[in-house]
UniProtKB/TrEMBL annotation:
It comes from Azospirillum humicireducens. This is UDP-glucose 6-dehydrogenase. Substrate binds at residues 152-155, 207, 252-256, 260, 324. Keywords: NAD, Oxidoreductase, Plasmid. Residues 317-418 form the UDP-glucose/GDP-mannose dehydrogenase C-terminal domain.
Length: 443
């Protein structure tokens, strides 16, 4: 089989490379000449563990290629995937579909045989029908069908998610289109992956419903963590106690500074706007969005409180600025609220992130960037962990203590044990856990 993948961002590049690993011939298309040149030279423009080897292997095998020429890419394909960005539209929070609709118009110009046009981008309900209308308007004679195939990839583990998914969702407008999509995913039949075939609208809504549910779950445990701090309970024990219930599950029950990234913030907001537009508001998700926005801002207040109520003239060492580990993605990262708030309060911020500093430099002016974790610590008044990179989990606490002016750690990801930190002589702040003495672990 042959496919074209329009867009070489996170979704397009990962999906294209993984399809090629299945034996499909994939041509990835992008208008960014610099990005295509880098990909042809073996340079990966995003950080995703294992992606460089996957791309190199399939390029060498002749199954994966990169071009700016959509007409060339569409020759003889069974399907063309739209995997372009759908950022939040400025001013109203709706998904910006201009790139999707632009891709549909270009696809229409080059259709010369039956092709399934697939929306891989996260799009609001009704987008697939509009893509179909655009193509019909430009090319009334074209032979094609529309399908929706939402992605459920987690940054940092996207290849595994694609190769061993919980499910594949396909929204198809015809049996013929459904059969083409089943053939593409046939390798997954061997591991008995559920293939859920639905209408276009159902597939589109399923993606948003999944992301907003997970965002709500994160927000729920964050609020429970706040309650734990008031009543002396341990949020991790609460999370385990409820997560062992099969109806709830243990995933996404880890308290932190709020969700971020390329999906949850924009998708929750887009679904809220869609629901409001059709007169069926989602009050729960509206609240989730509001709580999460406020929580990220409140995290700076925790750091300031741990430093005695003021950071004016003090140096704060920050470990991690990406929204999660194993990615360089800074989109809606909590650090984008926390770091400026600390700077506004008079702090000097010295930071390190294993992957995201190149991007973060553009977004967080005035930060002193270190070469490694220990490089942030010398003479700092406290250290705050914002991202749970593995290399931060086993720091030499004696060395950390000796480098800080005061042994103060604010652990917004709860990667250390309060008892261990107390024995090491730290004033330790985490989220939703009691201190060894029985009081709350708030610094």
């Amino acid at each position: 089989m042959r496919i074209a993948m329009i867009g070489t961002g996170y979704v397009g590049l990962v999906s294209g490379a993984c399809f090629s690993e299945f034996g499909v011939h994939v041509t990835c298309v992008d208008k960014d000449a610099g990005k295509i040149e880098r990909l042809r030279n073996g340079e990966i423009p995003i950080y995703e563990p294992g992606l460089d080897d996957l791309v190199a292997r399939n390029v060498a095998a002749g199954r994966l290629s990169f071009t700016m020429d959509l007409k060339e890419a569409m020759q003889g394909v069974d399907a063309v995937f739209i995997a372009v960005g759908t950022p939040s539209r400025r001013g109203d929070g709706h998904a910006d579909l201009s790139y999707v609709y632009g891709a549909a118009e270009e696809i229409a110009q080059h259709l010369d045989h039956y092709t399934v046009v697939v929306t891989k981008s996260t799009v609001p309900v009704g987008t697939g029908r509009e893509v179909e209308a655009i193509i019909r308007r430009v090319r009334p004679d074209a032979e094609f069908d529309i399908a929706s195939n939402p992605e459920f990839l987690r940054e940092g583990s996207a290849i595994g998610d694609f190769m061993r998914p919980d499910r594949v969702v396909i929204g198809a407008t015809s049996d013929r289109a459904g059969e083409v999509m089943r053939r593409l995913y046939r390798p997954l039949y061997l591991i008995e992956t559920p293939i859920v075939v639905t209408s276009l609208e159902t597939a589109e809504l399923t993606k948003y419903a999944a992301n907003t549910f997970l965002a709500a779950k994160i927000t729920f445990i964050n609020e429970i963590a706040d309650l734990c701090e008031k009543v002396g309970a341990n949020v991790h024990d609460v999370a385990r106690g409820i997560g062992l219930d099969g109806r709830i599950g243990k995933k996404f029950l880890h308290p932190g500074p709020g969700y971020g990234g390329s999906c949850f913030p924009k998708d929750t907001l887009a679904l809220v706007r869609t629901a409001q537009q059709v007169g069926s508001p989602l009050r729960i998700i509206e609240t989730v969005v509001d709580i999460n926005d406020k929580r990220k801002k409140q995290m700076a207040e925790r750091i300031i409180a741990a430093c005695g109520g003021s950071v004016d003239g003090k140096t704060v060492a920050v470990l991690g600025v990406a929204f999660k580990p194993n990615t360089d993605d800074m989109r809606d990262s909590p650090s984008l609220d926390i770091v400026p708030a600390l700077q506004a309060a008079g702090a000097k911020v010295r930071a390190f992130d294993p992957a995201a500093m190149h991007e973060a430099e553009k977004l967080l002016p005035g930060v002193d960037w270190a070469k490694d974790a220990y490089g942030t610590l010398e003479g700092a008044d406290c250290v705050a962990i914002l991202t749970e990179w593995n290399e931060f989990r086993a720091l030499d606490l004696r060395r950390v203590k000796s480098m800080l002016k005061r042994p103060v750690m604010i652990d917004l990801r709860n990667i250390y044990n309060p008892d261990d930190m107390a024995k090491a002589g730290f004033t330790y702040t985490s989220i939703g856990r009691p201190s060894p003495a029985g009081g709350m672990d708030r610094g």
